[in-house]
Amino acid sequence: MQQVGPWLIRDGQGGGKRVSAATALPGWQTDDIALAESAMAALNQPALFLIRGGEDALDTALA
Q: Which of 6, 40, 46, 61 has the fewest CB atoms within 10 Å, measured from its CB?
């Protein structure tokens, strides 16, 4: 797991979607989504985000 900007990026190593998903940290902004997408692409993973309860703004930004 590594922090890239306001995201925790996981290297799932083929372990499934939840272990490969990026998690937002406090203070993320819509423009930061590209950072997470680039980090996941560098790991040859699809862009996948874990949206937790109360993260409606993230859900909307990704829609």
A: 46
